[in-house]
TrEMBL record:
InterPro entries: TPR-like_helical_dom_sf, TPR_rpt. It holds the Pfam family TPR_16. It comes from Undibacterium cyanobacteriorum. SMART domains: TPR. This is Tetratricopeptide repeat protein. Keywords: TPR repeat. The keyword DNA repair does not apply. The keyword NAD does not apply. TPR repeats lie at residues 241-274.
Length: 397
């Protein structure tokens, strides 16, 4: 039986903790024009049972959203700037009662209707409302420390973006005037303070949205849908690297290794040190008989990433299977040292503590797993574990 392969994907989500700050500096980059590489697509291999993804639908404003603008935002504009009125209506007065949900990247109207979404969804919804109000907007890619999540054999490299409302405006003393421009960031300020930002175009945001939907479709086992989203992401911004990797994962899972190799090669031409693409091209090279090339990529990746994402987690899970809970705890702690807020690491180190009879420490980590969970499904799992633990404690007492 062949071992199950794991794949790495890029996913824009990040956990949300709303922050608002002034735009102090933002680096702009001029992208080299990249044409859509039509030779990487294989439409004939994927039946299109649903309409092709529509970029215009991403920012579409619903009647409900227009009513919200008229009732909750326009009424504030007389006593506040347009930007401040939008921010207050959406996020300060909490009329929407937004909830974070990483399970699905929603478009603007879906996010508003469900009152939930990941950070890319919230950026898109905010942008749609701001544009409906006639506000100038721009987007930023925020360079945060590397963060990963997983779903089965899929590993997601998690990125972060935010949105800027209004144009830059300086007062008579050459100070940035916060009444003209503000940045809305859906991540705790302590985690983004001092981080470098790069302004990105809206077509890149569109590409990120479609790439997220492609990754989520792969996770759900819907390869035909994933292909259509990955294709749409590349068409939206051919210079954005992530969708080529996502398309390659679709090809690898549908036994089209040559096309996977071609797509990953294209990604690495655009960004030679992209570790996500490099981790996947190793398998594509092996499956296409390029063994020497696979070895070179493996050596290169090992130099860039000596301990891959979830390396110690896998060792910890192996130790759990062998009932060596002290060793498992050590491995899980190493992962927590790298990603202190990742819910699954807290859950499993909690399980190791529980197996060792360290109930209080187990409870602390189960609570941390629950508070850091990013989907209703995970939240329910951790809540149930805490309920069982509390029931056990009451029996002992």
């Amino acid at each position: 039986m062949k071992p199950q392969h794991s794949f790495s994907l890029t996913h824009l989500m990040r956990g949300c903790g709303l922050a608002i700050c002034l735009l102090l500096s933002a680096c702009s980059t001029t992208k080299v024009q990249v044409n859509v590489p039509q030779h990487l697509f294989n439409d004939a291999a994927f039946a299109q049972s649903t309409p092709a993804p529509n970029p215009q639908a991403i920012f579409q404003v619903s009647d409900e959203m227009r009513q919200f603008i008229a009732k909750e935002i326009v009424t504030q504009i007389r006593s506040s700037s347009h930007q401040r009125a939008l921010f207050n209506a959406l996020y300060t007065k909490a009329q929407l009662k937004l909830e974070y949900d990483s399970s699905y990247t929603r478009n603007a109207s879906e996010t508003f209707a469900s009152r939930s979404g990941n950070c890319l969804s919230l950026v898109i919804m905010t942008a749609a409302i701001a544009k409906e109000m006639g506000l100038d907007i721009s987007y930023q890619n925020v360079f945060v420390p590397e963060m990963w999540s997983r779903s089965g054999a899929l590993y997601f490299n998690v990125g972060h973006v935010n949105i800027v409302l209004g144009k830059r405006h300086f007062d008579d003393r050459n100070h940035l005037d916060k009444n003209y421009q503000m940045t809305i960031d859906f991540y705790p300020p302590e985690d983004t303070a001092g981080q470098r930002t790069v302004e990105i175009a809206e077509n890149t945001i569109v590409s990120m949205y479609f790439n997220n939907r492609a990754a989520e479709s792969i996770s759900a086992g819907k390869l035909e849908q994933a292909y259509q989203f990955a294709r749409a992401a590349i068409n939206a911004d051919p210079s954005f690297v992530a969708p080529y990797n996502t398309l390659a994962v679709v090809y690898l899972r549908s036994k089209q290794a040559e096309l996977a190799y071609a797509s990953l090669s294209h990604a690495l031409q655009l960004e030679p040190s992209n570790k996500v693409a490099m981790s996947n091209i190793i398998q594509a090279a092996e499956e296409t008989g390029r063994d020497e090339e696979a070895k070179r990529f493996s050596t290169r990746l090992a130099s860039l990433q000596p301990f891959p994402p979830f390396h110690f987690f896998k060792l910890g899970m192996k130790a759990m299977e062998e009932m060596d809970y002290r060793v498992a705890k050590q491995h899980f702690q190493k992962e927590l040292d790298r990603a202190p807020d990742y819910h699954e690491f807290h859950f499993w180190i909690g399980m190791a503590h529980l197996r060792l009879g360290e109930v209080k420490l187990a409870e602390q980590h189960f609570n941390a797993a629950k508070s850091n969970s990013t989907s209703s499904k995970d939240h329910a799992i951790y809540s149930a574990k805490l309920d069982r633990l509390n029931a056990l404690k009451s029996q002992i007492n």
